[in-house]
Amino acid sequence: MKQKFNVITSTCVPLPMENVDTDQIIPARFLKATTREEKFFGDNLFRDWRYNADGTLNEQFVLNNPKYSGCILVAGKNFGSGSSREHAAWAIAGYGFRVVISSFFADIHKNNELNNFVLPVVVSEDFLAELFASIEADANTEVEVDLPNQKVTNKATGRSEHFDINGYKKHCLMNGLDDIDFLVENKQKTEQWEQANK
């Protein structure tokens, strides 16, 4: 979903598991879908963890725990490894997450998130561990993600870290632009350059 991104403050959903791969984010059987409907993919985010084999809710899984909510997913190291399926980013966005915080992302998945208006924030392992501890101590812990200043803050401790982002992707997120929107926005500049460089 195209949304302008500025500063987001939210409670978090903790997923302190390392090496979460794209098949766990969205199982392969859902890749045959003929729609990119956000609700469909969001409803099936972490499908095999959210539901038991008989289709009942797995009450032990964090997305089914009513004390955790918010538009920020805090995940363990090496999030989004495995296949390059963009469907994983569709599912994260479709569920309603706008930010994923981890100490390391698989490169392709990280770019897929950016292309789908989800901000992947890379923090130090120490900061991530502190964040998990804060959320465990109080599910109402809020995190502020400031894209213009590229800063993430644990509101429970006041600790902040700077995060990196590609300048082009930052511009697109802050202005709600996908790659095509960006080209259309700069059509006149492109035409002027072409005229000047004939």
From TrEMBL:
GO terms for biological process: L-leucine biosynthetic process. Residues 4-125 form the Aconitase A/isopropylmalate dehydratase small subunit swivel domain. Pfam families: Aconitase_C. Pathway: Amino-acid biosynthesis; L-leucine biosynthesis; L-leucine from 3-methyl-2-oxobutanoate: step 2/4. Keywords: Amino-acid biosynthesis, Branched-chain amino acid biosynthesis, Leucine biosynthesis, Lyase. GO terms for cellular component: 3-isopropylmalate dehydratase complex. It comes from Xylanibacter ruminicola (Prevotella ruminicola). GO terms for molecular function: 3-isopropylmalate dehydratase activity. Its EC number is 4.2.1.33. Signal peptide: none annotated. Catalyzes the isomerization between 2-isopropylmalate and 3-isopropylmalate, via the formation of 2-isopropylmaleate. Belongs to the LeuD family. LeuD type 1 subfamily. It is an enzyme of class 4 (lyase). Heterodimer of LeuC and LeuD. It catalyses: (2R,3S)-3-isopropylmalate = (2S)-2-isopropylmalate. This is 3-isopropylmalate dehydratase small subunit. Gene3D superfamilies: Aconitase, domain 4. SUPFAM superfamilies: LeuD/IlvD-like. PANTHER family: 3-ISOPROPYLMALATE DEHYDRATASE SMALL SUBUNIT, 3-ISOPROPYLMALATE DEHYDRATASE SMALL SUBUNIT 2-RELATED-RELATED.
